[in-house]
Amino acid sequence: MLNEYNEPICTRQTLSKIEQGVIIKNDSIYEELLKKVNLKFNTDYCIEEFLPTSIFSDLLNACDYYNLEKLISISESYIKQLNPFKEYIFFHEYYECFKWIYTYYSSFELPTLQSTEYIISLKNIINSNLYEVMMDLVFKKRTISGIYDFSYFDFKNSSSMINRGNHMMILYNQSKLSEMLDYCQDLEKEY
């Protein structure tokens, strides 16, 4: 990758390390890479100041109980709150997730297939409850699109009822009815 002066941002080895999650002790490399995707690094604000952790459990609960009003209200509120910061890394990812949630629950438009790949990659970046909500949207889009590879998420051991329901759909579609019945009985014991 080249910077604006057509000079390499970093070596291929360094880029490979970054892609594998290895921390590089050169902030300018990160800043140049973020520029390539039209994002910035923000040292003035902390994402946690804007997003209390309780909001994510409320969001997941609203998803589990299909509370459209609450899903729309929460996502709309945080879209507005994060909008001024959407060009910053981390803020951008949360902003996009709230936009996808709002769009689906207000107009039933799912993310694109390309977006589902991006959403799957957010596992270690966004809050785990938000990730659960996003996995339900990914499941819906990929299933509707005829993609039946579910290895991207452990629906069986999910903490949300909606994704556990998705696991039952997977078992049903794979004609694993006995396993589905056992799973339902396990859920009955748990709840």
Q: Describe the main β-sheet briefly.
A: none
Radius of gyration: 19 Å
Mean pLDDT: 90
* Terminal residue distance: 52 Å
By helix and strand content, what is the structural category? mainly alpha
User: pLDDT below 50 for ≥5 consecutive residues: which ranges?
Assistant: none
- Using DSSP, what is the number of strands? 0
Specify the oligomeric state.
single chain
Please write the string of helix (H) and strand (E) elements. Answer: HHHHHHHHHH
Explain this structure to me?
With 191 residues, this protein is mostly helical. 62% of the residues lie in helices and 0% in strands. The chain has 10 helices and no strands. The chain has helices at residues 12-19, 27-36, 47-50, 53-64, 68-82, 91-107, 113-120, 128-144, 161-173, 177-190. Helix 6 (91-107) packs across helix 8. The radius of gyration is 19 Å and the shape is globular. The model has no long low-confidence stretch (mean pLDDT 90).
